[in-house]
Amino acid sequence: MGTGKSTVGPLLARSLDVPFVDTDALLEARFDAPLPSLLSRGEASFRSLERTVLEEQLADPSPRVVALGGGALLDRTVRLRLLARNTLCCLTASPDQLRARLQHDSSRPLLAGAPWALESLLQQRTEGYAEAHVLLPTDHQTPDQLAALLLGELARADLLVAAGSRSYPVRVEKDLCTIPTTLQHLEPTSILLVTDRNVAQHHEARWSGWLQGFPWEAMVLEPGESQKSPAVLLRLWERLQQVGMDRRGVVLAVGGGVVTDLGGLAAGTWLRGVRWVAVPSSLLGMVDAAIGGKTAVDLGAGKNVIGAFHQPSAVHMPVTLLHTEPERSFRSGLAEVIKTALVGDAGLLRLLEEEHEAVLRREPGVMARVVRASAAVKAGVVSRDEKEQGERRLLNLGHTVGHALEALGGYERWTHGEAVALGMGVALRLGERWKITEHGLAERVERLLALLGLPWRVDPGELKAMLPLLQHDKKREQGSLHYVLVKHPGEALTQKVAVRELAAALGAEG
Questions:
Q1: How far is CA 271 from the centre of its chain?
Q2: Please, are residues 510 and 461 in contact by the beta-carbon 8 Å criterion?
Q3: How far, in Å, CA of 508 to CA of 460, rounded?
Q4: What is the distance between the alpha carbons of residues 33 and 262, in angstroms, rounded to a whole number?
Q5: Percentage of the chain surpassing pLDDT 90?
Q6: 56 has catalytic annotation
Q7: Active-site residue among 50, 131, 325, 388?
Q8: Domains of the chain and any CATH numbers
Q9: 399 annotated active-site
Q10: Which of 45, 126, 205, 223 is most buried, by CB atoms within 10 Å?
Q11: Is 336 a catalytic residue?
Q12: How far is residue 112's CA from residue 43's CA, in Å, rounded to a whole number?
């Protein structure tokens, strides 16, 4: 309230040539009463009316600019639905500015009665307001300037991982031109860039350009899954100590899933947590590893068993980096895209089937669509279930068997994506046998895996050999696993299965 939504909104709508809607005005017109009168019936009653109007706006697919009442986003379920299909912009102002603007406004009953009411109201709503694609301060801007700034933000069309005050943008872009802007916003006292030798070989000159003017150093690791170890994590900590990173520093992780896992875990554990920015250079990193704050290293046969949830401050996904990814690694990342489609986006599965040749050529336009669709599913799931207490477990489709196969092969025989592809094939066939998975889906997915050059059948001997390794799965709870199965494309579920029962089923599969 008091930030100028009803003034800036029409200016923005005029620039976009779309209608402008003010939900407060809709409420007043519908009930033929001013807002103070509606609020006098009780705030709970008013919020119910407000939610009805907002639900109607969410159900309308036509493009428009909507100004929401200040408390419209208090219900997080509604807020997440809004974030999934729209761009949410929160205009902000300092309490002093708001007080000056509102001091003669008698239509604000929630601010009446106490000098501290404004601060109290802002504190109640801080988490909700933070979960917006754009937070735009209005203290020193004119309405025309604000509308112009919002136009620029809309052109970027960032995705958002909603995590309260730790919310962050996921930016799918052609190149890396906006990374300096992100770093300027973070104002780091120091930057440690973490990457691997393969990525450095192709992109070192580029990041020297983005980091010009910032205090930074680089740590270049050897490539490969073997780097995801406690020993390498210790080396990272030692390097952070050498550069004197304080809590205003930033770890910039540029690379595949190994690099972002290591860089994020180092950031999450250094000084009990410093900020980090993920710049995935691999398809696997873009569609999975870099989004969601899961950071980890391996320990022996245990995949990702040492880790923590530590959300980044931003994720940048420049699809042009995919042109330098090795062929096998790129195809491996496509397994995670198929997984994402199966658990959350049937349209993405059709896109892969229809455009598989363009995908394999890495055509930027098609890859931007693929990456954005995959990232949108992952960002939405993480927003609803940050710590993997429920829905986020669905993203482990294919991973139970996949992780065991990776460990069996010493993390060398199969890449992560190849192992997940094999694990998905097993899960789909078991799902069909158990009458959970739509008949014919296993064959459909196996055909797509073959078109994309991915393995789809596990050798029976390997399958039996990896069964004992299921005991090391980090998702094991008292002898059972949350095993992910697919009902239909875009719809999956988890089923608690005893390890011994799953091993018996997989033994029969072999």
A1: 25
A2: yes
A3: 9
A4: 58
A5: 61
A6: no
A7: 388
A8: 5-154 (3.40.50.300), 168-325 (3.40.50.1970), 388-509 (1.20.1090.10)
A9: yes
A10: 223
A11: yes
A12: 14
